[in-house]
Design brief:
With 157 residues, this protein is α/β, with parallel strands linked by helices. The protein is built from eight helices and five strands. The chain has a five-stranded parallel sheet with strand order 3-2-1-4-5. Strand 4, helix 8 and strand 5 form a beta-alpha-beta unit.
Amino acid sequence: MLTPRETRCRLFLTDWLDIRCILSTIVLVEIVADTNTFLAVALDEPERARIVQLTMGHDLVAPEILPFEIGNALTALMKRGVLQAGEVSTVWDAVQAIPVDLRAVDIKEALGIAVRFGLYAYDAYFLECARTLRLPLLTLDKGMRSVARELAIEVLE
C-alpha cells in the first residue's frame, strides 16, 4: 500500500510530465534551480505551486553535483523522521523525472565564492553555475538569494 507521500509523488510525476510535453516546444530561458526547489516540488511542499509557475516553459540547469546533493538530502530527511525509509526511493524517482541539464562548474571559482561569503561549497556551486552561464537562479534559501544579488545574479522569487 502506498503512503500518502508516495501517492502524491506518483500524481506529481504524471502532472509534471503532462505539463512538460505541452510546453516542450516553448522554451523561454534556462534557469539554474537549487536542490531545495527540486525537493520542494517532489515533496509537495507549500512552495511547489510557485516553483512550477516560475519554471513553466523553461529549461532547468544545475551543477552536476545535483543528484548527489539530492541523495544526501533525502537520507538526511529520513534520519530526521521526515521521510520513511520506503519513501526515499519514491521521492528520488519523482525528482529524477524533472528534466534538468547538469553542467560542470569551476570548483576553484565556486570555492572562492564559498570562502568570500562564508557559504557551503554546495551552495557556491549553484551560484557559480548561474554566474558563469549568466542565468537566473531559483532557490528557496534566503542567504543564497542575498549572495546572488551581490554577485549580480538575477534571482527568481
